[in-house]
């Protein structure tokens, strides 16, 4: 397996101007003809023309009309090399492929009898021989031919320019994409599909046709995706002045898909999970997910498609930027400040849950990686989510207008080009007359920086000092780090909880706002505030202005003050999380030391105040009441003991419930949403708080609280409430009550749960996405051990070939059921190894994702480490392991 390095980038030996493709679609033997016109790139030193190809049968190859002599080219497993080509070439290549056998879901494949493609990052080479690299941009024309009955719909990128009948019951459609694009944005879809369509008027007055294509039974689930698409189009016009550049924009849903969705030019292909929704089958989270993914793919039309990446090391150029754009879109769709904060909290939760551990583990890499074995492994939370944080920092540093100026210059300079992260940074710097040289380190250095904060108040002089010390832990292959350019948004609260006005000697306050963005650029830096009338409580890193870990010695009182009053809702939440975390760490240590567990009333009081403060949005209160996850706690520890963490977290939840039963019940009852389902922010927040209260109440092992969940299940009018109830039931403490007095209550609860699980399955057995939820609930349930998992894996509805289904059960168990996955006997890891090996043979990309579950094995207790190592070695030594999986396993074992 070869490692590819960023430093080795060289430009392509030929440019491609046009690509004309012809497809004779057949599931077992599809014929593909590709005519390309190429011209030599005089900037390249490479003489030969190297085309990538994988798993292709070459039928014929002609150059400038002549059959190419067998001595003029060479073929190996991955490429076709043409020796001494002339400077201008018309190349005709015919290949044959077998889409039905393609279980990798990369290239051209069949799902449910229909044809789909997935070409990012390197799938186009599974269709034809081509310089399959993003800096080769060309104009495409595509002719699709297929049996008309079996494949009535024939779609590709751009505009439909011709269609008609062919002999033998076949038909054709010809598509032309007016814009230059890299091969990874090529797409075709063919099959039995129906669509919801709407015409809209764009800002310039032009009209565009929007279509959402699905299988026949799903037309009642497309409205939300269509609404989200229209909102995205209007938002990009309004916020960035970017208009849809095509006359037609299509979204197609497919149930077999490796990721969330793909931004192919004019023909976005989506996982059904991010298209299909109605109240019956989709939760509030599903609705939000659809809005954000539809937005994300649409926004790629400019950030990714019109301006693309020079090479795959630059992936965050399009992904980080587009995630930032979709986050801003979702926030603007909510509109309120509090809604924005709730979104921000969710994004940061996700960063901490997944990216911080990645940045500290064996797969750690900079936002712009230096090397890879398999590029699919670098569609990572670092490239996406940390990449979005990096873009957000430009926004924080340059302000709303400044960022927009940078974006405008970026498009002015680079439209229809393949460029680098440095080009983006240069546009931001030049448009604002700023020096952003040091900012480059966010792209080149991996690891989560630590920011130590200390403060001094001089009552006599009325001065206040904030000192920062930054450092960054060593990461794989990077031992020494240089200081980052960190924007730290700061506010100071007075004793009454109000923001104080700020005067800082080192940093001018642009407006007379009460939040100041301090630019920390040195390893150690002090900021002096003057005219500070009383000792303040500092609110540091407001709105999470940089992806760093802040270390600061807050007292519990400081945190309670911030939780109660900070005008920055993010930091209000953060204060609550800090209060919880310090207790969770103490409790975990107490569990390990066999000491009694205790929780102080100060913390419970602080939570109770938030829970009962009805002036706060329900959504915000729900976020405050949600404890740091087991993974968050694990990241704070030197050695991870999953069972101690679980016990500590469970103890805290039951103590909160013991003290706040009545308040939780009130929260439950006062947030019932009746009437027609609507996924708006207010109703969503109410349902979230109500369902959280319900889940807390299950810590109180009584039949009355269990009945509350059971009744909610039976009466549920929407999927959020139904799944919320079922989740509460399956995790209810009453089910694990050991004493004989509660035996009958336990039995009754178990019976009710079994009945509900059966009822749920029967009611939704024809809704694949809902059955995924059913599997996820069970895979992550506290009671699902390895034995139960093995039974579930044998369920007739379970399959490894569908990524959604495989993920629903297996990823739930391996990533969201720590107590059972980390069983002391190592049986969870043995199951993991079996499944990685099985999945590897079907779909290496999905297998490699699962392989990541043991990334952090070196941090666990010695006994668990031993079992994990055995499992990792089992995978490493298995036969035919793909480079996708091997890269992960080898890095973990290194
Ligand atoms: N740009 C896409 C990334 C992607 C992908 C999508 C689906 C299947 C396989 C894929 N490999 C890479 C998705 C996005 O970020 O929008
Ligand atoms: Zn993307």
Q: Whole-number average pLDDT? A: 97
CATH architecture of the domain at 13-190, by name, is Sandwich
Largest sheet: 9 strands, mixed
**What Rg is obtained from the alpha carbons, in whole angstroms?**
28 Å
Q: What is the CATH C-level name of the domain at 13-190?
A: Mainly Beta
**Number of DSSP strand runs:** 32
**Termini Cα gap:** 16 Å
Q: How would the global form be characterised?
A: globular
* Helix percent band: 40-55%
Contiguous runs where pLDDT drops below 50 for at least 5 residues? none
Q: How is the CATH topology of the domain at 13-190 named?
A: Immunoglobulin-like
Structural class: alpha+beta
Number of helical elements: 25
Percent of sequence in beta strands: 15-25%
CATH homolog superfamily of the domain at 13-190: tricorn interacting facor f3 domain
Ligand types: (3S)-3-amino-4-(1H-indol-3-yl)butanoic acid, zinc ion
Pfam family, one: Peptidase_M1_N
Cofactor: Zn(2+)
Family: Belongs to the peptidase M1 family.
Organism: Sapientia aquatica
Characterization of this structure:
- Helix 3 (315-334) packs antiparallel against helix 4 (337-360).
- The mean pLDDT is 97.
- This protein is α+β, with helices and mostly antiparallel strands.
- The chain is globular and about 85 Å long.
- Strand 26 and strand 27 (463-471) form a beta hairpin.
- Among the domains are: 13-190, Sandwich (Immunoglobulin-like); 308-444, Neutral Protease, domain 2, CATH 1.10.390; 450-546, Sandwich (Immunoglobulin-like); 764-894, Zincin-like fold.
- The strands form eight sheets. Strands 2, 3, 5, 6, 9, 12, 14, 15 and 16 form a nine-stranded mixed beta sheet that branches.
- Zinc ion binds at residues 296, 300, 319, 322.
- Zinc ion is lined by residues 296, 300, 319, 322.
């Amino acid at each position: 397996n070869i490692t590819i390095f960023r430093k080795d980038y060289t430009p392509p030996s030929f440019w491609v101007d046009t690509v004309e493709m012809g497809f004779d679609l057949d599931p077992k033997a599809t014929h593909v003809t590709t005519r390309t016109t190429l011209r030599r790139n005089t900037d390249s030193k490479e003489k030969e023309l190297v085309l990538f190809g994988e798993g292709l049968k070459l039928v014929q190859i002609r150059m400038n009309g002549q059959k190419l002599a067998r001595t003029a080219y060479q073929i190996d497993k991955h490429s076709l090399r043409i020796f001494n080509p002339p400077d201008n070439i018309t190349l005709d290549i015919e290949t044959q492929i077998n889409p039905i056998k393609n279980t990798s879901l990369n290239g051209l494949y069949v799902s449910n009898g229909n044809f789909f493609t997935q070409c990012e990052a390197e799938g186009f080479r599974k269709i034809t021989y081509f310089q399959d690299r993003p800096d080769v941009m060309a104009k495409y024309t595509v002719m699709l031919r297929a049996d008309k009955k079996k494949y009535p719909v024939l779609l590709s990128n751009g505009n439909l320019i011709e269609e008609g009948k062919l002999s033998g019951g076949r038909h054709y459609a010809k598509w032309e994409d007016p814009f230059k694009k890299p091969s990874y944005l090529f797409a075709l879809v063919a099959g039995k599909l129906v669509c919801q369509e709407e015409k809209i008027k764009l800002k310039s007055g032009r009209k565009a046709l929007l279509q959402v294509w699905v299988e026949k039974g799903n037309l009642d689930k497309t409205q939300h995706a269509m609404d989200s698409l229209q909102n995205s189009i209007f938002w990009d016009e309004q916020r960035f002045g970017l208009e849809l550049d095509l006359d037609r924009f299509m979204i197609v849903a497919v149930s077999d898909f490796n990721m969330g969705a793909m931004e192919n030019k004019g023909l976005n292909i989506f996982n059904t999970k991010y298209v299909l929704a109605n109240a019956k089958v989709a939760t509030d989270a599903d609705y939000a997910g659809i809005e954000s993914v539809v937005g994300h793919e649409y926004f790629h039309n400019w950030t990714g498609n019109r301006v693309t990446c020079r090479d795959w090391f630059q992936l965050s150029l399009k992904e980080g930027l587009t995630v930032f754009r979709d986050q801003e879109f979702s926030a603007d769709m909510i509109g309120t400040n509090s809604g924005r904060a709730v979104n921000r909290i969710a994004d940061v939760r996700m960063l901490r849950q997944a990216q911080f551990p990645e940045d500290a583990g064996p797969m750690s890499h900079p936002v712009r990686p230096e090397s890879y074995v398999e590029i699919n492994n670098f569609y990572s939370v670092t490239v996406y989510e940390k990449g979005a944080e990096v873009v957000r920092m430009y926004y924080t540093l340059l302000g709303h207008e400044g960022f927009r100026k940078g974006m405008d210059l970026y498009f002015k300079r680079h439209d229809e080009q393949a460029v680098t992260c440095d080009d983006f940074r240069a546009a931001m710097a030049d448009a604002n007359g700023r020096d952003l040289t040091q900012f480059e380190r966010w792209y080149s250095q991996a690891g989560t920086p630590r920011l130590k904060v200390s403060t001094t108040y001089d009552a006599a002089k009325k001065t206040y000092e904030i000192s920062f010390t930054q450092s960054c832990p060593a990461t794989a292959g990077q031992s020494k780090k240089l200081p980052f350019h960190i924007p730290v948004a700061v506010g100071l609260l007075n004793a009454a909880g109000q923001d104080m006005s700020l005067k800082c000697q080192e940093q001018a306050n642009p407006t007379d706002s009460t939040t100041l963005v301090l630019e920390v650029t040195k390893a150690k830096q002090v900021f002096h505030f003057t005219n500070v009338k009383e000792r303040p409580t500092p609110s540091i890193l407001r709105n999470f202005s940089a992806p760093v870990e802040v270390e600061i010695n807050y007292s519990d009182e400081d945190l309670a003050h911030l939780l109660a009053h900070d005008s920055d809702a993010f930091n209000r939440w953060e204060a609550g999380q800090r209060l919880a975390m310090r207790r969770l760490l103490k409790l975990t240590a107490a569990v390990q030391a066999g000491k009694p567990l205790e929780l102080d009333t100060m913390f419970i009081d602080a939570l109770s105040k938030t829970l009962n403060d009805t002036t706060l949005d329900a959504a915000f209160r729900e976020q405050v009441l949600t404890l740091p996850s087991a993974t968050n706690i694990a990241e704070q520890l030197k050695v991870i003991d999953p069972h101690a963490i679980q016990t500590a977290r469970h103890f805290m939840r039951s103590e909160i419930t013991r003290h706040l039963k009545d308040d939780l019940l009130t929260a439950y009852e006062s947030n019932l949403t009746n009437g027609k389902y609507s996924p708006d922010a207010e109703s969503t927040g109410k349902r979230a708080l109500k369902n959280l209260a319900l889940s807390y109440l299950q810590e109180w092992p009584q039949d009355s609280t269990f009945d509350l969940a059971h009744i909610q299940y039976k009466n549920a009018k929407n999927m959020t409430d139904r799944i919320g109830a079922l989740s509460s039931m399956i995790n209810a403490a009453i089910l694990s009550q050991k004493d004989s007095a509660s035996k009958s209550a336990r039995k009754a609860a178990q019976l009710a749960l079994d009945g509900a699980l059966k009822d749920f399955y029967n009611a939704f057995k024809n809704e694949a996405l809902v059955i995924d939820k059913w599997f996820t609930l069970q895979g992550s349930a506290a009671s699902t051990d390895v034995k139960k998992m093995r039974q579930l894996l044998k369920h007739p509805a379970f399959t490894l070939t569908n990524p959604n289904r495989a993920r629903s059960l297996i990823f739930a168990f391996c990533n969201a059921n720590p107590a059972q996955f980390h069983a002391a006997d190592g049986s969870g890891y043995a199951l993991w190894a079996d499944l990685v090996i099985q999945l590897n043979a079907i779909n290496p990309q999905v297998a490699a994702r699962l392989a990541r579950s043991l990334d952090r094995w070196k941090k666990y207790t010695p006994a668990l480490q031993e079992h994990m190592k055995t499992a990792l070695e089992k995978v490493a030594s298995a036969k035919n392991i793909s480079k996708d999986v091997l890269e992960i396993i080898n890095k973990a074992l290194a």
